[in-house]
Amino acid sequence: MQLERDNGLVIYNPNTDGIHVQMSMGVTILNSKIRTGDDCISIGPGTNGLWIEGIHCGPGHGISIGSLGKEQNEPGVQNVIVKTCSFTNTQNGVRIKSWGRASNGFVRNVVFQHLTMVNSQNPIIIDQNYCPGNKNCPGQVSGVRIDGVTYEDIHGTSATPIAVKLDCSSRYHCAGIILEDVHLTYGNNKPASAFCTNAIGSTSGMVQPNGCL
User: Fold this and answer.
1) Is 213 among the domain residues?
2) Does the annotation mark 155 as catalytic?
3) What pLDDT, in 10s, does the model give residues 169-192?
4) Going along the chain, which residue ranges are E strands?
5) 31-71 pLDDT tens trace
6) Which of 38, 39, 127, 167 is catalytic?
7) Is residue 49 part of a domain?
8) Is there a catalytic annotation at residue 181?
9) Which entry of 39, 61, 127, 167 is annotated as an active-site residue?
10) How many domains does the chain have?
11) Domain for residue 111, yes or no?
12) CATH classification at residue 183
């Protein structure tokens, strides 16, 4: 991972998260370039009041909330703002990820705003069926409740045909999802598509791809 600030190179390690935040309140992350083999920034249980701005991510796995819900009793993630960031050749853009297993965890009051995607494989993704190796995930149903997530002014290109994927829990559907002024294309300005399951919300302004919520 490389993390650069205006004054130069900070650290290098090829296979780890750039920055991980967990069990923390009132953290601010500003104006950094992060190149890594995993998440540029990962956000774990017990995070409240996190502000992320001016991050240039890539390569890497994007900015991820999760994975959450690995434990039955787990504090939630709330009041997160991610704004004015770019994602270049990343596996994901902004992601929320939870295990497909019972949990009392939650995600609420999250804003993703003013983001640029350049050839990101999954620019916008919620994955509530995370189960590596298909082990220890009874019933494949996530108990993590997601409520109140806004995606505003997100534009650029997806490296795959599905630019928006909201794959939510069949037990606790994602609620309060807002897509506002989202414009994502596939490859060289081809139309991209969206996939939603168990997601409830609304759209406003120009939203492309559309027809998801």
Assistant:
1) no
2) no
3) 999 999 999 999 999 999 888 999
4) 2-5, 8-12, 19-21, 28-35, 41-43, 48-57, 63-68, 77-88, 92-99, 106-120, 122-130, 145-158, 162-167, 174-186, 190-191, 193-197, 199-208
5) 999 999 899 999 999 999 999 999 999 999 999 999 999 99
6) 38
7) yes
8) no
9) 61
10) 1
11) yes
12) 2.160.20.10
pLDDT tens profile 148-173 = 999 999 999 999 999 999 999 999 99
Residue 8 domain boundaries = 2-208
Phi, psi of 172 (to 5 degrees): -120, 95
pTM of this structure: 0.93
User: Is residue 28 a contact partner of residue 6, using CB atoms and an 8 Å limit?
Assistant: no
Residues 6+ apart with CB under 8 A from 179: 151, 164, 201, 202, 203, 204, 207, 212, 213
pLDDT > 70: what percent of the chain? 92
Return the C-alpha torsion angle 67, 70, 76, 77, nearest 10: -10
Distance CA 72, CA 75 (A): 10
Helices (H), 27-170: none
What confidence score (pLDDT) does residue 66 get? 95
In whole angstroms, what is the distance from residue 35 CA to residue 45 CA? 23
Domain presence at residue 150: yes
Token pair in block for residue 199: 């997601």
For residues 63 and 85, give the distance between their C-alpha atoms in angstroms, rounded to a whole number.
10
CA 132 to chain centre: 18
